[in-house]
Amino acid sequence: MTLSTFSKDNSSFLNDQPIHPFDQLTGDEIIRVASIVRKHDISNDYIFNTITLKEPNKKHMVSFLGWDNSEPRVASIEREAFVLVLEKETMKFFEGIVSLTSGLVKSWKYVPDVQAIFTLEEMLAVNNLVTTDEKVRLECLELGITDMSQVFADPWSVARHNDYPGRDIRIMNALLYMRTSEEDNQYAHPLDFVAIVDVNKLEVLTIERTQPRSSKFTRASIPQQNHNFLPKFMDKQDYRQDIKPIIIQQPEGVSFTVEGNEINWQKWNMHISMNHREGIVIRNVNYRDGDERRPLFYRIAISEMVVPYADPSSPYNRKQAFDVGEYGFGRCANNLTLGCDCVGSIYYFDADFNDHEGKPYRVDNAICLHEEDYGILMKHTDYRNNLSYSVRSRRLVISQIVTAANYDYGVYYYFYQDGTFEYEVKATGILSTSVLAEDETPGGFGTMVAPQVNAQYHQHFFTMRIDPMIDGLNNSVQQVDVLSLEYPTGSIKNMNGNGFTAEHTILKDTLQGQANSNYDTSRFWKIVNQDKIHPYAQVPVGWKISSSHLAPLYAKHDSLVAERAGFLKKTLWVTPYDENQMFAGGDYCNQSSGKDTLEVWSNSKVQDIEQKDIVVWYTFGITHLPRAEDFPIMPVEYCGFTMKPSNFFLRNPALDIEPTNASINQSVLTNAEKNESCCSK
Length: 681
What we know:
Number of helices: 8
Strand content: 35-45%
Number of strands: 32
CATH superfamily of the largest domain: Copper amine oxidase, catalytic domain
Shape: globular
Largest sheet: 11 strands, antiparallel
Helix content: under 10%
CATH architecture of the largest domain: Distorted Sandwich
Radius of gyration: 27 Å
Structural class: mainly beta
CATH topology of the largest domain: Beta-galactosidase, Chain A, domain 5
């Protein structure tokens, strides 16, 4: 990714738009926050790990946005930053709250027994370290590598290391690979050892070799065969020659408007931003229903992503990446490229983050906004007179792409014309590979995708934090199960045996608010407002949550990964709103103990969740048993979830979408013998 360095002379960092309380910090604000911190404690030299927006007070914001009129409307919101620094001399972490409004440090405290999120600078430093370390060089020499510029590392969180327990040392695993040329695919040449690195001291603590299973070899050699995919390695004649261009055009312009970070698209309205940890954050989602603007969601963002691997042998049993809490979806954001990552008429948003010196840097084109045709929205043909009615669907797309070492994740927020919201992840990139001896097999824990190259079994879990306000702040969650009638076939109440019904259960407390999916009952959940009853359906207005990607956690429930990510044990969690509970894996999940997680909060005290200001945590994911077709680069694997209005509107809210036809969308015939026809008559 390309990063833009901040300069006072660089006008691109200056924000001419008034700053909204939900806007992420600008480059100027990051500089100012760092300056305030240094003036507050001039005796210390700090490494700035994080400078980001402190989430505004929700009660004040709800009033500021006009959703709560019970008291005089709040006219202004204090602008605050959350700061996390590492004291260079002691390597201790401190966190603080800085008021940009007053220019003062409001709070400052030492945070013991934690390790904060890793930064890009640290990961690059680890990669450089392994090329100069003597212990690594000697290992490579034994494998036949004499040129250390061929060696590359993927720095991974250590999870928890038996030889270095606790969080006193900031540790990373350096998974090591070789390249045969500058842009060679290193994952085709995995090495048989990892370096354990003290990130603070930039020192290799120890080397850990992998041991071949059931092999005559004591050590695996390096796979030598190249498996490349970049254009420089391809002959142009190897590309398919029968592909014709598809051009997406909007000759009259786009249907959305952008004011600062606020988006209006047809009946939808929302605010977007990006922070270092969650990446895209969508706030204040509302929908215009006739003359009424109805609130739907206060805040939606990914809270955590966990990728546990299946191989029980060391060091692979420590592979359990928390890609949000350990690395950050924002900091790992790509610079998106016009015509490649997004096509059509594109609007980009940039994102500003901080470096170790407290200076801002910019990720250009971090967020892509555009519209897509999405096939048929609704259609009916009357067979009696052959009259056909057809309306095409369109969706608004807000997206980013994250590169987490080997994997790349396309993250998509979709808004549809019928009120549907969808969150989708497109997983691609390169498999995290390990080496096998020449006579070794994956042992039931992976797939050999090339000679001696093992792609280990693993899972991808995504936990969303959904802060709803369905027609108001007080909401409930209703569990819906479809059940066959208990009456036997032939009985008066079920003569033909075909009867089934739906059971609706309101989850009343934080114990009931822990629920798993159930395919036997087609289970789903609805976020409802019991104070608002639909006039026709006579049920609370609500929004249905569902997904076809609800994999169970296959690791033991007393495993290390389950201890650190206990929220993966359930599909759904519902908790009362708490401004200090933003991340399912805790504020500091790097090398975490598991004592500050969603599972712990939910079980520490039983709390009421019926018609309260609640937060819904929803986990979806996939189990990935790699295929040979996933290498050397993986085609996209899709997963996600949807939220649909369920007895929220009086009728289909898309009835006012006008049918399109060939003259509007400029469709043409490839078969000239056919007659053109309209979509609606």
